[in-house]
Each structure stands twice: as structure tokens, then as C-alpha cells.
Design a protein that fits this description.
5-stranded mixed sheet, 16 strands, alpha/beta, 29% helix, 294 residues, 7-stranded mixed sheet
Amino acid sequence: MAANLQDLLAARRAMVPADSDAYRVSDGVEWRGVFIDTLADRLLVSLRDVALPRDLEAQLRALGRPVYVKQLERDDKAAPQQLCGPEVGPRFNIRENGVAYIMDMAAGYSQGIFLDQRENRARLRRADLRGKTLLNTFSYTGAFSVCAALAGATTTTLDLAQPCLTWCKENFALNGLDPTAHYFCKGDVLHWLDRFAKQGRVFDLIVLDPPTFSRDAKGHIWRVERDYGKLVAKAAACLAPHGQMLCSTNCRKLTPAAFRAQVASGIPGARLTAVPMPPDFDGEQYLKCIWAQR
């Protein structure tokens, strides 16, 4: 029997807090290779190596909501295309655990936030971080920075792309935060970690959620499955006594046990606590997250 999209929408709505309007509706289970997210009044359908199923397309068109479709091929950075529903502007806001974020359907790769990190952002938001400092590496649009700043921390947001840092500042302002009270660094994370270590600069919290693959200006290749432990070690040199580090990767080649071993090798003696994916992500458990407590 074909899955009923309306029933899925109602069931997933019940899984997330009332002050959230962004969550996963279908995680490749009901329709193989099809992932559906609710983003405020819009739906985003992501396809991995499949065409949009006809029965699902009919149900999407019947909703009367703006629906977008994108491909998940590794080298395809094209923005989602609107399939049906009322015409709306590409930029809009979502809310997650009461925090607002700017989304952009005209952006390629990601629309502004990774929903599978919701529980980790909530952990920061719930904490009392007054007087604490956070370093958010590979920050993208700075969602972790926003949550930590709302909890009272002074944040340093680091990314290679200036547009991402600008987007982060907009997310700060959207939540009533003054970006000028925080720090924003553009450049290579490995370079900045070495620089912070030489300066003796340490942070109470560090977020490490790198891409699975990257190549620096000199052509050196970095891969999560091989090099994550080295990254953790560099970050540990900048972690304050009794500090915490969120270590995360969505690399499917890396098993949870192998990932844990890399984290442990980079910060010996730390207490490691794994965090599961949010309950609306009930398909492949690709995301590995460990909080390392020094």
C-alpha cells in the first residue's frame, strides 16, 4: 500500500516541539531514495538516484503548498526547483526550538540549516553559557553559534566562505543578537586552529562538523575517514580545561566504532557521549555525533 503523505505530515508534526516548524517528514523509508522536509510553509523533496514517484507527486500537488525538488548527486550543487504550489520568494524564516533561521531556496547544496543536528543545537540552547566561549568551525550559516549566543556565550564563528559568515550575522540579528559582540573569522580551519594554539587562545566549547572531503590551496587532500582524529587533536589544543567538544560527521564510510576511535585518539582521556539522530530521522543512521568532555 502506498504511503499517505497527509498521515506522515501529522505523525512527524507530533514528534517535534511546538515551537519548531522545520523537520523531516520522510527519510527514505516510505519512498526509497526520497527525503522530504517541512520548512515552515514549504516542502523540500530531495532525491537520491531516483525519479520522483508518480503517486507521491500527485499527493504533493494536492497539498496546495509550495513544494520544491532537488537532486542529491554529489557534484550537483543546483538549487531546488519549485514543483507546485503558490509562488513565493526564495528567502524565508523557519523556527526550531524557538530559534529563527533564514532559509534560501535559491542556494545550492543546502538551504541554510542541517535539520539532523537539531538535538545538538537544543543542547547548547538549554545550557547556561554565560561567561563561556564557543568556537564554531566549518560553521556554514552559524546555527550552533546562534544557539550558544542565545544561551549567553561569546562565540567565534569560522568558515572559509564570506557569504556564510554574512548569513550567520543575519541569523544573529534575526534573533535579537548583536553580531558586533561576537567574532567572525574567514579562512581555513586547520590554519586558524594552529593560530589559536600559538596564541594560547582556548575555548570552553568547540564544534567540529567538517565536510567529508576538502582540498586546500596547495592541493592537499583532507578526508574525514582518514584525518578526523588529527583534526580533533588540533582542536583539543584550543580546548579549555573541563571544556566540551562536539565531534560530528555524516561520512557514510566511517562506522560509529571507527569514528569513536578517531575522536578518542585526538582527545585522550575525555569522556565520550554519543548522541542519536532526531526521531524524525528514522532511515539510515548516517550522522555520528559525540560530545567529548575533557
